Amino acid sequence: MKKCFALFASALLAVLVIVSPIVAQDHAADTTETINRSIEKLDPAFDELIDINAEIEQLSSGHKWTEGPVWNKQQKMLLFCDIPNNEINRWDEATGKVTVFMKPSGYDGVANEFGKEPGTNGLIYGQDGRLIACDHGNRRLYRLYEDGSKGTLVDRFEGKRFNSPNDLVMDKAGNIYFTDPPYGMIDESLREIEWHGVYRLTPSGAVTLLTKEFTRPNGIGLSPDEKTLYVAQSDKDAPIYKAFPLNEDGTIGEGKVLYDATPLTKDPGMPDGMAIDQKGNLWATGPGGVLVISPDGKLLGRIMMNKNTANCTFGDDGSTLYITSSGFVCRVKTKAQGLGFDE
Description:
Layout lengths: L8 H7 L22 E4 L15 E4 L5 E7 L4 E6 L4 E6 L5 E5 L17 E6 L5 E5 L4 E5 L5 E5 L1 E2 L2 E2 L6 E3 L5 E4 L18 E4 L5 E5 L5 E6 L5 E6 L6 E6 L10 E5 L13 E3 L5 E5 L2 E5 L5 E6 L4 E7 L4 E6 L2 E6 L10
Antiparallel strand pairs: 1-24, 2-27, 3-4, 4-5, 5-6, 7-8, 8-9, 9-10, 11-12, 13-14, 14-15, 15-16, 17-18, 18-19, 19-20, 21-22, 22-23, 23-24, 25-26, 26-27
């Protein structure tokens, strides 16, 4: 999937009220510490993007289902979600420790009538430096303010509540593209919208349905020139990554399958979140771990996590890939650099 932060964050942390921690994929807790992780080269071009002998370093474990990683350049920290635990966690580079950043991150009622996944999923920083989150439990996108309050950006389309917004990406003009599958809902009969859509939200608050063709839309990303929108589908019957041309008016043209992961589905996981590097390669979670797919749809290699893998993002100076996989958070150094780190 898929991601800047202003200096106000120190004040934000001081005022947030923290409570102690108490599918497309299997989101059960996984506390296995020893996992055989590796890097698999499938094309010579992969050598330009990563050292196949690079260490896949485990930073944190014991979570239920990690998602939504986003890097904070100013504070040199990673935020990531644990959706079933309804919290956003913070990993600090300076200390190497994980602390709770916010809980509840999503649904804040006494009981969640809608779902097994009450927390937040995809995270980004907006142009104003504020955190923007896909909130499963409250079926919305929200912006986090300096005082710790959450302001709804959008929670309905044509008067009907979204299913459970999953992942999002913002373009340079401030438009947000997001997916709305039903994963956060325990009972899909409670859906108010009959499809699982991909939407565009403008800075003025206008929301447009881009497509309702997907059965299980999930991760989403933009090409470096912002002329192509990528969407991953977590459907075992059609585990694909699609590419859509973006029109000047913000609508999309006819999409094409960029890569079909069906031959890989003997390995754990489905197409999920993604990050894009500066050359336009997709670092897309899917069967086995993280698939690295060229802009023309060639699978160059995989980072084999050997667990269901949810999402990834570039961090540090842009040449470290942070990965959320099952109950773990890992990182690996890359030769590629993520979007937004040359600015």
